[in-house]
Write a structure and sequence with these properties.
Low-confidence stretches: none
Order of helices and strands: HHHHH
Number of strands: 0
Distance between the termini: 30 Å
Structural class: mainly alpha
Strand content: under 5%
Oligomer: single chain
Number of helices: 5
Helix content: 55-70%
Length: about 80
């Protein structure tokens, strides 16, 4: 189970970085959009923490992604 959780954290981290790059925004801007601390955004993007569904939804919305898109391994068909 630990490997599965770590893998999911890495997928989410990668998708967040890709989406931020696509929108050309910083972690600070994402944090402001999602109303989450920059420190927590950084921990999620570094795959250091597993966050809850509430924060995942706020982050996905701030990046114009669905929960499925942010938690699924990146593919070219992503926005």
């Amino acid at each position: 189970m630990e490997n599965e959780e770590l893998n999911l954290r890495k997928i989410i981290a990668t998708n967040m970085r890709i989406a931020r790059a696509r929108e050309d925004i910083t972690q600070e801007t994402l944090a402001e959009r999602a109303n989450i601390s920059t420190k927590h955004i950084t921990k999620i993007e570094n795959a250091k923490v597993t966050t809850n569904i509430y924060f995942m939804k706020k982050i996905a919305q701030a990046l114009d992604l669905t929960l499925d898109e942010i938690t699924t391994e990146y593919k070219k068909e992503h926005k």
